[in-house]
Write a structure and sequence with these properties.
The structure is a single chain. By secondary structure, the chain is of the alpha+beta class. It is globular. The longest helix is centred in the last third of the chain and has 14 residues. It starts with a helix and ends with a helix. A hairpin with a 2-residue loop joins strand 4 and strand 5. A 6-stranded antiparallel beta sheet has the order 1-7-2-4-5-6. The protein has a 3-stranded antiparallel beta sheet with strand order 3-8-9, with no helix packed on it. The chain is 35% helix and 17% strand.
Length: 205
C-alpha cells in the first residue's frame, strides 16, 4: 500500500510541495492522486493491514483510516461503501461514528477537508497530528456543513480487515484516490447516484 503514497510524496517533495502545509501543496497532491490511475482498494487494504506501521486493531478519534467493511444490515440499506475512508469522531458501543469522505464528490471532499484542517491538533502533519472534533462542533459551524451526508456508524465486528492508518501527510492523496466502492446488497452501484443523494441532502439542510 505504501508504494502509491511514497511515490506521490517523493514526487511532490522534489517539486517543493510539503504535504498539507499550504493550499498549493494540498491541491498538488490531490491532483496527482486523481491522475494516478486505477487502484484496487482490496489490495491496498490487504497490504496496509499486513504493514505493522499501518495496521490497527483499534481506532483513535481524529485519525484517518481505510478499511474493508460489510454492514450488518447491508441487505436493507439503500447502499454502502465497502471501503470507507473515515475520520472517526466519536466512539460508541461496539463501534464508532465517523466522517466517510467517500460520500462526497471530489470538489466537495476538497472543500470539507480544507475546513477540517482548521481542527488539526498541530501543524506537524505527522503521527502526532489528528483532528480535534465532536458532533456538536461540526454541526454548529456553517463551514463544516458538508459533513452531514458523510456521517455513518461503523460496528467493529463488521470490519473485515485491520483499520489501515493514513498518515496526515497522506490525507490529501487518500482523499482523491479512486477507492470508493458503493454497493446495494451485493451489487455494485455507480457513485454518481450516491453523490446526487448527498447533494440533495445538503440542499435540504
Amino acid at each position: 500500500m505504501a508504494a502509491i503514497f511514497d511515490e506521490l510524496l517523493l514526487r511532490g517533495v522534489k517539486k517543493g510541495q510539503i504535504p498539507a502545509r499550504t493550499q498549493d501543496a494540498r491541491e498538488w497532491y490531490r491532483t496527482a492522486a486523481r491522475k494516478s490511475g486505477a487502484h484496487v482498494p482490496a489490495k491496498l487494504v490487504r497490504s496496509g493491514s499486513n504493514d505493522p506501521s499501518r495496521g490497527r486493531s483499534q481506532i483513535r478519534v481524529g485519525d484517518m483510516y481505510l478499511y474493508h467493511y460489510e454492514p450488518k444490515h447491508k441487505k436493507t440499506l439503500p447502499y454502502y461503501d465497502r471501503f470507507p475512508l473515515v475520520f472517526p469522531f466519536k466512539k460508541v458501543p461496539k463501534g464508532w461514528l465517523g466522517i466517510n469522505m467517500h460520500y462526497l464528490p471530489l470538489p466537495l471532499r476538497a472543500k470539507l477537508m480544507d475546513n477540517l484542517y482548521s481542527l488539526a491538533s498541530n501543524r506537524k502533519y505527522d503521527e502526532t497530528t489528528r483532528l480535534r472534533m465532536n458532533y456538536d462542533m461540526l454541526n454548529g459551524a456553517a463551514k463544516f456543513r458538508l459533513f452531514k451526508p458523510t456521517i455513518h456508524r461503523y460496528l467493529v465486528h463488521h470490519v473485515e480487515s485491520k483499520m489501515v492508518y493514513i498518515n496526515p501527510s497522506e490525507w490529501d492523496i487518500a482523499l482523491f484516490l479512486p477507492l470508493e466502492r458503493f454497493y446495494e446488497n451485493k451489487s455494485r452501484i455507480k457513485k454518481g447516484q450516491v453523490y446526487k443523494d448527498s447533494r440533495a441532502m445538503l440542499r435540504g439542510s
